[in-house]
Amino acid sequence: MSLPNLISVGGAPEGHDAQLILREMERAGGPVIHIARDDKRLAAVRAALGFFAPGVPVIDFPGWDCLPYDRVSPNPEVEAARMATLALLTHDRPERFVLLTTLNAATQKVPARSLIEGATFRARVGDRIDEEALRQFLVRMGFSQAPTVTEPGDYAVRGGIIDIFPPGQGGPVRLDLFGDVLDGARRFDAATQRTTEKLQVVELAPVSEVILDEAADGRPNVYGIFPGRTDRVVVLDVHTDTVTVEHMTEEPFDGRIEDGYVWGRGALDTKASMGVMTA
Prior knowledge:
- With 279 residues, this protein is of the alpha+beta class.
- 25% of the residues lie in helices and 22% in strands.
- It contains 7 helices and 15 strands.
- The chain has helices spanning 16-28, 39-52, 76-91, 103-106, 113-118, 131-140, 271-278, and strands spanning 32-36, 58-61, 98-102, 121-124, 144-145, 154-158, 161-164, 173-178, 181-188, 195-199, 201-204, 223-224, 233-234, 256-258, 261-263.
- The strands form 5 sheets. A 6-stranded mixed beta sheet has the order 5-6-7-8-9-10, with no helix packed on it.
- Helix 1 (16-28) crosses helix 2 (39-52).
- The longest helix is centred in the N-terminal third of the chain and has 16 residues, at 76-91.
- The termini are far apart.
- The mean pLDDT is 80.
C-alpha cells in the first residue's frame, strides 16, 4: 500500500534515527509521526530527541498495556495518556511537533475526531457552572468519584470544592465554587495539596476511550424502553453467554412479570446486568 508522505527507515543506528526525524520535520515544516516497534524503542527515541532538540514538542501516544479481548482492562493511566494526546491533537496542537507512537498503538481504533470535539468541558473563572451537569459530564467521560484524587480519572466533591484529575501531564485541578459561580481554579500537587499554578480557564477532556453518551439516531445503539419511561436508555452488558434451548422445560423467549419480578428462562446469561438496568 502506498501512502503519501510515508517514509520507511531501516538500519538507522540508535540516536541517528532522532536526527532523521528532526531533519524531516525541518524539511516538511510541520508535524512528524514516528512509529516505533515497541515502548522500549519509543523511550529511546524520546530521550534522543530531548538531547538533540530540547525545545521541540514531543507528544507520546502509547498503546494499551493489555491484549485485545483480554479479561484485563487497560491501565487507567494509559487510557488517560492516550485521551490527553487525542484531545491535544484535536484542539490545541502546536504547529510543529513530533508524535511518538508504537506499532501496536498505531493499529488500534480510536474515538472519532467529532466525538472528541464534542466531549469537552470548558469554563472560565467567573462563569456560572451547573454542578449536577458537571458531575454527569465527568461520569460520561469515564471519571470515577473518590474521597481524594490520586490518579488521572479521579474526581472528588467536598461542598463547594471540586477536585478533578484530568488526563495529561498537568496534574489535578481544583474548582472553587461560590454558589454556582466558578470563584477560582488552580492546579495542585496531589501528594502535598500545594498550589502549582493558578488558572483562568479550565478545560477537561475524556479520560476513557469509551464515552457513555446518550443514545443517538444514526448510531448502532442498543437501547430499551421500560414502562413508565419515554426516553431511550443505552443498554450496557458486560457479560453474555449463549446457551442452547433444545432441552429447556420452560419457554426461553417468553418472559413474564409476577409480583413485580421478571421471570423467564432465557437463552442469554444476562441476569445480573438486566437486573441492574431494570432497577
